[in-house]
Amino acid sequence: MFNKDFYINAVHLFALAVLICFCVFVCDVYLDTLVITKQGWIRGFRASDGNYVKYMGIPYATVSKENPFGESTPFPKLKGVFQANKNRIMCPQVDMLSLQYVGTLNCLRLNVFVPYTKVSKPVMVFIHGGRFTLGFTGTFQGTHFHGPRYFMKHDVILVTISYRLGPYGFFCLDSPEVPGNQGINDVIKALMWVKENIHAFGGDTNKITVFGHSAGSMITDLLLYTKAEKYIDQAILQSGTAHAADVLWNVNNSVPLIISKHLGLETNDLKEALSFLKSRSTQDVVVAAKNLSIEFRPCIEKRFETYDGLINKDPFNTKPSVKNKRIILGHTTEEYNMKLQKPIQYFKDNDVFDNMLEYEFDFNNEKGKEAVSSVRHFYIGDNEVNEDLKWKIVNFTSDITFNYPAYRDMDKFIENGAEKVYYYIFAYTSSSNLYKKLLNISVGRSIHGDELAYLFETNTIPPLSASDIIIMERMTTMWTNFAKYGNPTPNKTEMLPVQWLPISKDSRNYLLIDLDEEMGEDLYKDRIDFWDTFYETYKQFMRPNKTFVNLLL
């Protein structure tokens, strides 16, 4: 017999059960993406492309409206719940692909990507490159270069940061208000934020690996020579060191005067020029610097009564604070391959040897001719530059900018107590090599930036091939193993068939990263020996540091 009351009660119980399940699901979504940090409440969102949570656009510092060229300050406490769901904020720059001005000074943001597990995780903080004038880690006009998905399967937390660029990040002036290296100080603020807050996301504050590419790698390395090294437990330096010839430049008061003149104010008064530039839009200032071909770099700052400075000495004459730290560093096989795209007439009209040496040496006429002649003879003999010799010029430009500085760096690390130093050369090449794809380069092997597509997901290249996936899995496994264990290959596996040996005082071991991996020793030995002798012979002519004028060629 049908029991109406029983049926109604059953329906009510079923509806209640559905409601409870729905509430549990909704609460689970919100609770799992909501964190309470020292800065305040932050809500992220679950990723659609994997089992992890994204916290996008978290503000870590703020720029003064009165002095946008000066040092930033930590962002104040958040009001209410911060919705961390925007990753389209960029620091002022002229975008590399569209050549459009983009950005805002409200750009000191970071992104946190957290695998959906409940254990404490190592933290990896990435600093992007871009010659200190461009770059971002978010999405612009649908394009992204630093998607986190490849890292997430390895159970680490990934943090990517933005910092000020160009004139707003790297004006270096004889003024306590704008002493220089503002962009690097932004990075330090971000690392402080990570140290203070990442535990709220499940991060291990004693396992923070900072890694960067190109300018980001140079910044990471420079920090190892400062008091900010305390925020770095381990480091990975990809194609950039503090010893590169064009990293540190001089304080230069003429730069604001030149930009001001371009924008309509001719003055020799630095304060007047700065006041004028503060009144102009960021677009005016950034585009003017771009049109004037002014480049920006970190600098050796002057000391002031109210400001002691971040970088006061050239790393060449300083000891890095790396005792008990572990470091990976390396580069690609042909960093400066893009020079091959130049027509042969370019090499005939421009003395590449003289121009590159001028970055770091201030020769008199007699010694300059002798030095340049010795370098030219070593690389191309007494031959005139021709198509066949362009490869050797690529070797020269790669050696002086990337390869030899890496050797100088690793030797300093070992001499000053680094626990382990691992050296690599990235040799793999395919249609997915990032910069070769972006620059439409079809000859040679891997060039500057090519390894990035095998660490970060990007929509600027086709889907990875089977071989590409092997390299991606191999690199992300080694990088995250290093973050977890301080050793990129703690065990041999099918994916990691070669044990990566660290260097020592007696052996400069390196890992060749390719489909057929192998260990080697004394990479480019004859070329490195040549530069050891060259620097010893001409060290008295080394510039203490440089200015942008040297590069306006």
TrEMBL record:
One Pfam family in the UniProt entry: COesterase
InterPro entries, sorted: AB_hydrolase_fold, CarbesteraseB, Carboxylesterase_B_AS, Type-B_Carboxylest/Lipase
Transmembrane regions listed in the UniProt entry: 6-31
Enzyme kind, highest EC tier: hydrolase
Alphabetical UniProt keywords: Disulfide bond, Glycoprotein, Hydrolase, Membrane, Serine esterase, Transmembrane, Transmembrane helix
Enzyme Commission designation: 3.1.1.-
Domain of life: Eukaryota
GO molecular function: carboxylic ester hydrolase activity
Domain Carboxylesterase type B: 33-531
Family recorded in the similarity comment: Belongs to the type-B carboxylesterase/lipase family.
Name of the protein described by the UniProt record: Carboxylic ester hydrolase
Protein source organism: Pieris macdunnoughi
Taxonomic placement: Eukaryota, Metazoa, Ecdysozoa, Arthropoda, Hexapoda
